[in-house]
Each structure stands twice: as C-alpha cells, then as structure tokens.
Amino acid sequence: MSLKKQIFIILFIFLPLVAKADDSGKCGDNVNYSYDDATSTLTISGIGTMYNYSYKNTTTIPWNSYKDKIRSVIILDGVTSLGDYSFYVCDNLISIIIPESVTSLGECCLCACKSLTYVNIPNNVTTIGIGAFMNCWALAELSFGNSITEIGDWAFSQCYSLESLTLPNSLRIIGSNAFSSCNNLTLINIPDGVTTINAGAFQDCDGLITITLPQSVTYIGALAFQGCRNLTSVDIPKGVTSIEEQQFYFCDNLKTISIPQSVTSIGKNAFSNCSSLTSIDLPNSLVTIDNGAFNMCTGLLSVNMPNSVVSIGENAFYGCVDLTSLIIGNSVCKIERWAFALCSKLSTVYCLSEDIPFADKDAFSYSSYQSATLYVPFKSLEDYKITMPWKEFGIIKPLDNSTGISNTPNNSLLILSCEGEIRISGVEDGTSIGLYTVLGQILGTTTACGHQVSLSTTYKKGDVLIVRIGEKSMKVVLH
Fold this sequence. Notes:
This protein is mainly beta. Among the domains are: 21-102, no CATH class; 406-477, Immunoglobulin-like. The protein is built from 2 helices and 37 strands. A hairpin with a 2-residue loop joins strand 1 and strand 2 (31-36).
C-alpha cells in the first residue's frame, strides 16, 4: 500500500474525532446544541422540547462520545424540556443552568452526573421525571421552584451529599424511592398539601432523625421508611388508613409511633425489628395485624389489643422477648402460627372473647406461656381449659374484680384495670368518662370513641379508684 493511501486511511479514521473538538447540531425539532471545547461548555438553544434518548442506545445522544469532557451545560431561554437521558452519565459535569422556560425534566435527564453539586429547578417545572438526578453523588444543594406537583420515582435516589431539603408548597406526590439511600439526609420538610408518599420514598435514609408528616397525607407506601435506622419518632397523619408492608422495618431507634384512629390494618413486617419500641397504642379502628407486623420488637413490654382487632397474623409478635403482658380484645377470631412465639417473658395474658379464638397450636411456642396466667371470661372458662393451645397455659382464671377486670350491670360493658392504665370497652360513643380518687379528686376525663376508652394513671397495683361512666360510678382495684 502506498504512503499516500495510508495517510488517507489514517485521516479518514481520526477526522471525526478531531472534528468533535467543537461540535454542533440538532437535539430537538427546533432545538440545537453547540459544544465549545476550550471552555468544556455545552449550550442548548432554540424553541420547544429536546429529543428524548434511551440508555439502551446512548450512541444516539449527540455528545455521547465526548460527554466526559463536558463540565458546564447552559440551556437558553426558549427550550421547554430536558429530554430523557439527555445528560446521562456526564461524570464531570459540575454545573447546569436551567431557564424559566423549562417545564419538565425528563427521565434520567441528569442521572449519574456524579460531579454535579447544585441545581436550581425553575418555577415553571411541574414534574421531575423518573430517576432525573439519581446517583448524583455530589449533589448537596437543591432549590425547588414553586410549581412542582410531583417528584418522580427514584428522582433523587442515592444523592449521598444531600443533608437537608425543603420541598415546595405546590408538591402533592412523592414517588417511589424518590429519596431512597440519601443516607446523609438528616432533615426534610414535607409541606402541607402532599397527599401521597409512595413505596420506599425514604428507604435507607439512615441519617434521618425526625420527619414531620402533614395531615394532608392519606397514603404512605410499603417500605417508605424501611432502614431509617436513626429515626426516633413518627406521627402518622389522621387520614392514613393502613400501615403498609415493611413501612418501618428495621427502624431500630424508633421509640415512639403515633397511629391514628383511621388505621384499619398493619401490614407484613411493618414494624419488624423496631427494637427500641417499648410500647405502642393500637387504635380502636384496627382490624388486622398482618404477618410479622411487630416481629423482633425486642423492647416491647406490653400490648393492649383493641376490641376491633379480628385477626393476628403469623409471626406478628415473634421474638418480642421483653413482652410480659398481653391483652387480646373480644373480637379476635384467629391467631396464626408463631404469632407470640419466643416471647420468653410473657407472664400475663387477658383474652376477652367469650367465643374462643382459633389459635394455631404453635401460636405461643417457645414462649413462657406454660408458666403464665391466662384470664378469660367466666362464661367460657371451662371451654378454654380444654382447647388447644389455651389449655397449655400454666394457670387459667376467670376475669373478675380481683384481677382488675370488672363486669358492670350493663353486660356489654367491660372494665380492665392494670397498673398505669384503665381500659373500658363496650361503652357508647360520646359517653363522658371520668377517673377519680376515692376522696373525689378528679384525675382525668375523656369521651368514648370507637366504643372503647383508655385512661392513664400514676397509681399503683392495689390502689382503689372511682370510674364514672355517664351517670354511673364504680370502684376499680388496680391490678
């Protein structure tokens, strides 16, 4: 081959690479780009939307061959969108200017831009696409415009440098895994108006200590706060009707949780491994406690199950090794396998149902129930004594005044008193309830809701108090 021909072939191969030193072309029907190699700046100009691209064929992205050289992106006024995957894995991109004309940020438009530290999202943007800023490891500061209504799934997942966030008042929906694994995020302000927090939204944000959920929230998805290991307290908004699967799984520093009267179900493993929980107030609206709901809540000391609960799932309280006292409401009809297994300190169980609940033979396996005392309604005492696994309890006694359980002249009314709490069930909604000393000093008042009431007291075992229900009064001995 002649030298002239060899030189021609070399030029033919390398000429396109040399030409990319400065580059320009189309990236939308009426949108163009130009790249300045001297400043490592890509400028997008024109009117309308950018083209959408795909991670499956990144070679169609015009600047893909030199994306690692781009350090700055300037989008000029007139452009209305950042196309899907448009700046995907621009590893050395440090800054981007997005004009007010932009209304949407496409799917993964800035995904894995690992050197990007700051983004200002303009006022006209209404939606942030799926994975828009996912894996932007250096992103430490975000400024949101005031028109955003939805943050897409995975939008800011694995943005490890984010420490605090104030979300815009216009926001309504937080997508699945939107902020998952932002493990330096310690503070987030969710505005009133947000209605939906989807599955895994804050999963594995293990730096998060507290979060305030506005009362506008009506749905929180599965795994929403799973693995938030430094989260200490949560108040569930009053419009939420279910605690979904693994919602607070492995939040092992969670000490207090407030569940509203609207909640009817607690899902699978919802609070599993929340080892710092010592007590939990279950609402009178609760119907089902699903499999593993409080599995391995090793700090839980007592459980007071409301009369609304119908079923207790498999492993629901498995491994609650500090659980000593359990009240099972009068509507429970099914207790699944290992529901209270490995509750090795269980000493007192009150089962309030006259109709003996079906309990799997292993419902209390490997717990201390064979040396525990079971209190049941007098009417069903003999039936409990011959029914598995109830008959396996060490002592079975009837509910009466000596145990802190009082049956009143109204056969549907039941009072249970134990140290620290008096619980009244079967009372009509709206009935006024008062708690007094025997000298007439008032200790507290409340109004019945959900046919049940709980009153707290600092009085101790053996003390006598007066409970006034409507116009009737009675003495109660604390058990």
